[in-house]
Amino acid sequence: MGDSFGTFKVEPSSPYYINNSDHPGLVIVPKPLNGDNYATWRRFMTVSLNAKNKLGFVDGTLKKPSLESNRDEHEVWMCCNDMVFSWIVNMLDPEINDSVIYCTTAHAIWEDLRE
Known about the structure:
Strand order of the largest sheet: 1-2
Radius of gyration: 14 Å
Number of domains: 1
Number of strands: 2
InterPro entries: Copia-like_N (IPR029472)
Largest sheet: 2 strands, antiparallel
Protein name: Retrotransposon Copia-like N-terminal domain-containing protein
Domain Retrotransposon Copia-like N-terminal: 20-66
Strand content: 5-15%
Mean pLDDT: 93
Number of helices: 5
Distance between the termini: 40 Å
Structural class: mainly alpha
Shape: globular
Order of helices and strands: EEHHHHH
């Protein structure tokens, strides 16, 4: 059964769905990014995020809905983006974390780390 956010219904197959086992401190890859392991770390992250149907938040394919056009979907997108954001920053070496913590979206962090 899906969850509802206002009038916006979230089904388990939706990228907006957050499982009961998902939380901001969840470790989704075996080793944090330390600067020397970017390719391996990115592959682990890509597989993990794809398995959770959240890859669109980092690759930019799931765009942020307009607050004016759909408040409920916007709020759900923000919640999910923040969850993915937390998964990424939790899997970074503290020095790397300091350089991206002020990015506003999971996609922005993803792009910043790629550069």
